[in-house]
Amino acid sequence: MDIYLETERLVLRRFTAADVELLVDLDSDPEVMRYLTGEPTPREEIERKVLPEILARYETHPRLGTFAAHEKSSGQFLGWFGLQPRSEAGTVDVGYRLNRSAWGQGFATEGTRALIDLAFGELGMARVVADTMAVNTKSRRVMAKAGLRFVRIFHVHFDDPLPGTEYGEVEYAIERSTWEAGARA
User: Fold this and answer.
1) Residue 131 burial (10 A CB sphere; 0-12, 13-18, 19+)
2) Is the backbone of residue 173 left (phi > 0), alpha (psi -120 to 50) or beta?
3) How far apart are the C-alpha atoms of 113 and 8, rounded to whole Å?
4) All domains in the chain, ordered by first residue
5) Cβ neighbours of residue 35 under 8 Å, at least 6 residues apart?
6) What is the pLDDT of residues 49-83, one digit of tens each?
7) What percent of the chain is predicted at pLDDT more than 70?
């Protein structure tokens, strides 16, 4: 197993070509996909686009990407966490997608905090950002608990908008100086 990061309760590892089924199961839950696409991701799309892009990112950005998250004690696949490059130098995007069975147990906050610490501590980033739909109150709460601060509401045009899109997207972020000062929202 190619371990990327460990926390008290999580092990994050690189995905492999053999992980198609894990992603299919995760993206098949309509509640998991509610604020993302609103529908399950087809297996073919995971096999031909999603997983190959995840694997390719490891080559182009070796310390960044999307990482499979497992519960340390049981080995159960919980979902994924990611640190993705952004166009702004020194800035990464933090995100996660977890199985419903992992919701409400603090895993999202624990993994997000660990990635923020990694981004600033080891990777030397200047800023970490995250975004979600404004109506996604659970993810917004995770962002705040992880130390990210509300920055703005913005609107994106979608040809086939999800319910709640009319309220916009929200951006949360934390700067290196805030992280270094030990501030948590």
Assistant:
1) buried
2) beta
3) 12
4) 3-180 (3.40.630.30)
5) 132, 133, 135, 136, 139, 162, 164
6) 999 999 999 999 989 999 999 999 999 999 999 99
7) 98
